[in-house]
Amino acid sequence: MQELSVDIAIFGGGIAGLWALARLRQAGYQAVLFEQDGIGGVQTLASQGIIHGGSKYALAGKLTDASRAIAGMPGTWRDCLSGTGQLDLSGVRILSSHQYLWSTGSISSGLAGFFAGKLMRSRVQSVAAAELPPPFDNAEFSGSLYQLQEPVLDVVSLIEVLYSRLAEYCWQLPSAQLRVDAGQPGVFSIENHLRVNSQAILLAAGAGNQQLLRSWGRQQPAMQQRPLHMLMLRGELPRVYAHCLGASTNPRITITSYPLADGNVLWYLGGQVAESGVQRDAPAQIAAGKAELRALLPWLDVSSMQWSTCRVNRAEPAMASGKRPDDCYLQHQNGLFTAWPTKLAFAPRLAGKLLDALQEYGIEATAPKDLTKLQCLSTPPLSKPPWSQTVWS
After folding, report:
1. Does the pLDDT of residue 118 top 50, yes or no?
2. pTM above 0.90, yes or no
3. 305 Cβ contact partners less than 8 Å away, ≥ 6 residues apart
């Protein structure tokens, strides 16, 4: 059996693994990435592409731990998107430079005052009636609209740009070919072809982390999954990027849009309707989505639209009572790092934490390695977004 030494072996080709790989290679680490299926993973390409800045986590009228942790992420991403940040993402398509928050009626004076306060003024601006964009420019709209300084990205484009620069360090490794020595966390084999020795391993495979941890004989850190039943509709629709205020601190519905090659627009719907729809089958979920749009945007005719749904399991570190983590997660145990980004927006923050941890544990970059021995594996394909692999009604 041949042997290969690398500094860091990453498992998982979603946004967390790709961003970490880019930053590690940039820092001189001899890092490689292994993906079981396709690049872009499951959660990443099923995300709505919103680079959150925490505004939606402040809907109770105060800044939460989650809103504080994520507050700087839009600025970090904007630097990258302009080509001046830690990574050059100037080739990524920006679907919208901002998104909106809307209410169906008058917003409470307390929340309106909070948005107008010093802490939130740079994040949230009220939109005047004369400047309302479609579909809120209709005479029937009687609510409030706020502009959030949070960009929305074409996630397909994001993955394509990252992968175009990292493909030579990425390999497809089906789980059936992986052989792990639980007693040596940095060592694994690819069937009987190649033994890989690494200084550290990063598990960034989303829901796949659980099985990988068990392969290495670990039960911790524990993982939780918070499922969603997302809705999709396509047709002659305006482009919308907005959260609708609900009765709770969670948006009632979140709409993002994706321009299709045939000239139509796809709406991708998340928020409370996606969370509450987990127990519904696809026809019932579509019926619920139609009812929500009739209630929230009654003047908008969607009768001719095609509909579909997809299920997404958000994998995260286990939290008390199953609540959403406030931040990205990174844990180290004897050379094995386990990571969950929690949000697409947290990918740069997670990679930064990893680089800091490597320094803390004395894991240093070594001389360049000849990776030709990995050619026993194939190059992983790009995964497809949910709307390109679904059945439309």
Report:
1. no
2. yes
3. 233, 234, 235, 237
